[in-house]
Amino acid sequence: MTTRVLDIDLAHMRRALALARRGQGRVEPNPMVGCVLARGLRIIAEGYHRRFGGVHAEVDALQRAVETTRRATAYVTLEPCCYRGKTPPCTDALIRAGVARVVAAMTDPAELVNGKGLRRLRRSGVAVDVGLLEEKAVELNRPYLKLVRQGRPWVILKWAQSLDGKIASRTGDSEWISSEQSRRSVHRLRARVDAILVGIGTVLADDPMLDARGTPLRRIATRVVLDTRLRLPERCRIVATAGRVPALVLTSPRSLREKARKAAGLERRGVELVPCRTVGGVLDLTAALRLLAGRRFTNVLVEGGSRLLSAFLDRRLADEAMVFVAAKLIGGSGAPTAYAGRGVSRVQDAVRVRTRVRRRGDDLLYHLFLQ
């Protein structure tokens, strides 16, 4: 491949990746995919997967082409699908359109695809190249890939803290540690995830709504409460709004049996109750995540207090964290920190992170990727 051809391929694939990201929060549990149809440097059409259940990126681009696509090259961020699901196979659409070459950033590990789409294209005489900007494509769809490969959702932790690491004062007051700009960022995050997860302690202490306000909704997140002993009050805001915003409570099978009358009352109000395995008298987080994955939840935002955040960190079940650090000192030996829990005995065993830092008003947002 000449340097010029490679440069052209890179430019078009970068554009396809940028297009793909526009589907974030709208296409899950499907992957984000972008497509550019080009002939040399000239772009004929471009498209992306815009919403779950809608046409895929390749078909979106083909439908927008204003000239023939015969002998064109299709740049796609993920292997084209080769089966009929909610939409027809993209491989067949590309073949019918006369596309001569397909450049895919990566293969799709989903069982129904996983190389079959590429083989279908090659058998039909289409030239196929795979792996261009693969690392970028993998980074884009990490939540989808984790759901497909591991059967678990992508877990994002969120908390606000002072410079000295406190998430509340010694009396439990936490309003407001972070700035208004930071709180707006949280609502934008809530507006694109599948579920917002808290422990029952947070519900009892704060009576939160856990909704997204002041930002366009990409999806309506299900509020998930981990409640081993079914202590959820029948008079709380999550229950009061369960008829219009989904509310899911994971609790122990024993509590469902012993508190059958309360459970029936909650269900009449629209709350869904699901039994979850317990370990040592508390809900098993791994089992809880598998239950959420079974509902095809791709991104789960955890907004609990220190106990829940620490449990996810101790068990290495978190993938990402959004930490809003305010220019404040709270102090107090009894004031809670985000990560207490068991911790590590040796510094070399500490949770490793990659960090991006941005400003949010007077705060700093530490965007962490946990390894």
* Strand adjacency order, main sheet: 10-9-8-7-13-6-14-16-15
Q: What is the overall number of helices?
A: 13
**What's the pLDDT, averaged over the residues?**
94
**Low-confidence spans:** none
| Total beta strands | 16
| Helicity level | 25-40%
Termini distance? 35 Å
Structural class: alpha/beta
Topology at a glance:
Blueprint: H1 3-21, E1 34-39, E2 42-48, H2 57-64, E3 73-76, H3 90-96, E4 101-104, H4 116-123, E5 127-130, H5 134-140, H6 142-150, E6 154-162, H7 180-190, E7 195-199, H8 200-206, E8 222-226, H9 237-240, E9 247-251, H10 253-258, H11 260-268, E10 272-275, E11 278-279, E12 282-283, H12 285-294, E13 299-302, H13 306-314, E14 320-326, E15 353-360, E16 363-370
Parallel strand pairs: 3-4, 4-5, 6-13, 6-14, 7-8, 7-13, 8-9, 9-10
Antiparallel strand pairs: 1-2, 1-3, 11-12, 14-16, 15-16
Helix pairs in contact: 3-4
Describe the structure concisely for a colleague.
With 371 residues, the chain is an alpha/beta fold.
Please provide a written account of the structure.
The structure is a single chain. With 371 residues, the protein is an alpha/beta fold. Helices cover 31% and strands 23% of the residues. It contains 13 helices and 16 strands. The strands form three sheets. Strands 10-9-8-7-13-6-14-16-15 form a nine-stranded mixed β-sheet. The chain has a five-stranded mixed β-sheet with strand order 2-1-3-4-5, with helices on both faces. Strand 4 (101-104), helix 4 and strand 5 (127-130) form a beta-alpha-beta unit. The model has no long low-confidence stretch (mean pLDDT 94).
